[in-house]
Amino acid sequence: MSFNNKMKYQLGAQDSYVKDNPIIINFKLHNLSNEDLWVLSWYTPLEGIKGDIFRVLCDGNEILYEGPMVKRGQPTKSDYIHIDPGRSVSREVDISSVYKLPPSHEYVVQFEGTIYDFATSGDFTPKKSEEHEMVNITGNSVAFRVVNT
Fold this sequence. Notes:
The chain has one helix spanning 3-6; strands at residues 7-12, 16-18, 24-31, 37-40, 54-58, 61-62, 80-83, 88-94, 104-111, 114-115, 118-119, 135-136, 138-139, 141-147. The chain has one domain: Sandwich (Immunoglobulin-like), CATH 2.60.40. The longest helix has 4 residues, at 3-6. It is 3% helix and 42% strand. The model has no long low-confidence stretch (mean pLDDT 91). It has one helix and 14 strands. It is mostly beta strands.
């Protein structure tokens, strides 16, 4: 089983949100394998939004990311999140804090789907950034509206 088949993400959102209120998206990362996984949380919603990690469309037009772009040093073991076999981890993030989201008929949001490093043994030493094994994972997109009231 390749790593791409060991993980998938799932986004969750409400059907609509009120303008100028938080727009909370739930990100869940599933371990589909029968082994423990450690995933580097960098550039995923598991660490919050610290880079351009989502594709956001408003009525078909891309909305630009306006949040921080965090530079990284070398990861430590605490930068990795452990996911038991068959389990998942999740985090809610407020995308309205980093994207301007005016009232609209339809927004579509998708995670870019890149995991920057992973391990399958708890006895790992975090690799240097240049040794990371980046993989793309699949998942769903969410659609919602933003209304005035």
